[in-house]
Each structure stands twice: as C-alpha cells, then as structure tokens.
From TrEMBL:
Name listed for the protein in its UniProt record: Acetylornithine aminotransferase
Additional free-text comment from the UniProt record: May also have succinyldiaminopimelate aminotransferase activity, thus carrying out the corresponding step in lysine biosynthesis.
Reaction(s) catalysed (UniProt annotation): N(2)-acetyl-L-ornithine + 2-oxoglutarate = N-acetyl-L-glutamate 5-semialdehyde + L-glutamate
Annotated SUPFAM superfamilies: PLP-dependent transferases (SSF53383)
Length: 382
C-alpha cells in the first residue's frame, strides 16, 4: 500500500531511467517520451552537458544564501533577459514565480484587481490558485485570495468592459496548457497588450509551460510582437532541477526593495549552474529553428487525423506543444492507454485533449515514429 497522499492519480509504471527521448520503467520497458515530465525535460534525459553542469557544481557549493551576491544568478539573469530592460528574481517552482508576479504587480501599481482567464492554470499555492480560472481546482479550498476575476479567453469585449485603471494586472498563458492547448489569437493578444498599456495595467505572461523554446521561439510571446511587463518561467528552466524565475521590467524594481520578498532556496548555485547550461543550449537560433520545423512536421502529420478519424475534433498548438482534441474523455483515456501499450507516453490536457510535449531534442526519426504510433492508435480506437 502506498504511504503517499492520494493527491495524484498515478499510473503504475515507475520511470527509473532515461536516455535522450526514451524513458525506462522498473521492468526495463522502454517508452518514447512524448510528455517530457510535463514540459520539463526539454533537452531530453541524461543530456551530457546538463550532467556536466550538475556534477561540476555538485563538487563546489550547492547553496550559499540570498544574503550574498551570486554571480551564477547574474549570469542566468543576463541570458534570460537578452539585453532587454528586465530584472530577474529566482525561486523554486512555477507557482512561486506566479506568486512573485502577483505580489509585485499589486505592490508596484497599488491596485488590487487582477484579471485572468477561464480554464487557465497558474499553480496550486493560494495566490496562483486564485489566479487559476478553474473552479474544480479551487473547490474545497476557500477562502481563496480575493481580487481575481476570470474572463473568457480569446474574447475582447469582456476584457474591454473590465479593464480600467483599477486593474493591477492581466495574467495569461500564450497557449493555455493544462486548459487544453488553446493558443491565443494574435489580434486578441496584441489588443490585450495595448489595452494594458492604455490603463497602466501590467501584463503578466505565464511562460512556465510555453517558454524555454517549447513553441519554437525562446518565449512563446515573441511570435506575437508584444512586450510583457512580467514573465514567469519554471518547468524546463533547469531540465528537471527545481527552479523558477520571474522577469519584470526594471521600472518595477522599487516595489521589490530589500526585504520585500524572498525565498531560501531560490536561485541556488546547483539550480543556477544547470539553468545556465540549459538556457545556453536552447536559446540559439539554429536550435529554435529546428524546434519550429519539427513542430510543423508533427502538426502537419497529425492534422491529417481530423479528416481520417471522426474521433478527432481538432489538432492545434505550436512548436512541440501540440494538442489533439478528441470527441470525449473516454476516447482520450483509451488513446492514452493504447499509446502506452505501444510504448509511447503522452498526457491529457483539459477534459478531452491529448497533449504532446516531446523533448525539443527529439530526432526526426523518433518524431516520425511517434507520429505513426499516435495515428495508428487513434485510428484503431473505437
Ligand atoms: C505547470 C504550470 C504552473 C505551475 O508550476 P509548478 O512548478 O507546478 O508550480 C503554472 N503555470 C503554468 C502555465 C504551468 O504549466
């Protein structure tokens, strides 16, 4: 019997090893990894440079404390902000990055209200949970943090109605991940950014799932020509070593003065040395172009299913973040099980969307193999 809280619905396989795009369970069975630990292992498993970064730092100092200067944090911050006018704060997870964003937005603006979107996901701690537009996830945990309102995603009129000079921030994902792989429409997101500017409202873009090259650009928002005031990152930032980051415009610095916010572990040396390597590997034009190409290939292959199978309602996404909307939650369960039997791991998003998040380093051959398995399993599901 498990000694663990039953808060996760766990599959019985226990992944004990990994190499590249493959993972191995307790019985030595291999699986093609099309979920990357939920968009975490973007450089795949056992990446030699990531191992080197971890082991080099493991023999120096793991943790120093944010009471001291930290050149590794400075280095990662420099790489993440890419010469733009942002400052960085490091923490340990996605939800903490969003907590920092929410606190910073309220303190910097002196305003209380934050607008976020239906079926969004921002994390499980109280602030991030309160920003999350999914009543099922909040059920039983009231009172949540006040001041949040949830608007329909990709719709402008409700936002135009709600957004005024009392709103501290608008918080959104560029592609809603947990909510069902729902990309923001370009005109909408650009209009949101404009409205925010007009009201001196901060735009918080949660790139925790979409960032780190996942969609073929380093940040997903880059494809929309917008400039967020605050950006949050976590998941793939250190390829599996827990770390999160919040980037904010340097004009917000005063609101996060000494003693205003902090964390013991945040940005520790071990996590930072790995993050430095991961960011360096991913943030290269040639690497990102390949992710975009692989994503286009996968999307094209899978889009054929919309005409070939009545079970497939839509195929959408960007780069290597792709969702296949199926006709029901039951079909989705059958497909996930069928894929596992064919030795491919994928997960769900929303109620009936199959979510594909292979490592960004996946080879064309592995990608084609995965696409064929997915097509076969979906075609054989009845
Ligand atoms: C996973 C995720 C989070 C929460 O990150 P944790 O590290 O699990 O706290 C927040 N926002 C988005 C978009 C996510 O995908």
């Amino acid at each position: 019997m498990s000694q663990l809280f039953p808060n996760y619905l766990r599959d019985e396989i226990d992944l004990v090893d990994g190499l590249g795009s493959y993972v191995y369970d307790q019985n030595g069975q291999s699986y093609l990894d099309f979920m990357s630990g939920i968009a975490v292992s973007n450089l795949g498993h056992n990446h030699p440079k990531v191992i080197q970064a971890l082991s080099e730092q493991a023999e120096k100092i793991w943790h120093s404390s944010n009471l001291y200067s930290n050149s590794l944090q400075e280095k990662v911050a420099q790489k993440l902000t890419m010469g733009k006018d942002y400052l960085a704060f490091f923490c340990n997870s996605g939800t903490e990055a969003n907590e920092a964003a929410i606190k910073l937005a309220r303190k910097a603006t002196g305003r209380k209200k934050i607008l976020s979107f239906k079926q969004s996901f921002h994390g499980r701690t109280y602030g991030a949970l309160s920003a999350t537009g999914q009543p099922e996830l909040q059920a039983g945990f009231f009172p949540i943090v006040e001041g949040f309102e949830y608007l329909p995603y990709n719709q402008l009129p409700p936002l135009q109605q709600q957004l005024d000079e009392t709103v501290a921030a608008v918080m959104l994902e560029v592609i809603q991940g947990e909510g069902g792989i729902i990309p923001a429409e370009k005109e909408w997101l650009q209009a949101v950014a404009k409205l925010c500017k007009a009201n001196n409202t901060l735009l918080i873009v949660d790139e925790i799932q979409t960032g780190m090259g996942r969609t073929g650009t380093f940040f997903a928002f880059e494809a929309y020509q917008i400039e967020p005031d605050i950006i949050t990152l976590a998941k793939a930032l250190a390829n599996g070593i827990p770390v999160g980051a919040m980037l904010g415009k340097s004009g917000l610095a005063e609101a996060f003065g000494p003693g205003s916010h902090g964390t013991t572990f945040g940005g520790n040396n071990l996590a930072m040395n790995v993050a430095n390597t991961v960011v360096t590997e991913i943030n290269q034009p040639a690497f990102l172009a390949k992710v975009a190409d692989k994503g286009n290939y996968l999307l094209n292959e899978l889009t054929k299913l919309t005409t070939e199978s009545v079970k497939v309602k839509a195929v959408r996404g960007k780069g290597l973040m792709i969702g296949i909307e199926l006709d029901s939650p039951e079909t989705l369960q059958q497909v996930i099980q069928g894929l596992k039997e064919e030795q491919l791991l994928a997960i769900k998003a929303g109620k009936n969307v199959l979510r594909l998040l292979p490592p960004l380093t996946i080879s064309q051959e592995e990608l084609a193999k995965g696409a064929n398995i997915i097509k076969k399993v979906i075609m054989e599901t009845n």
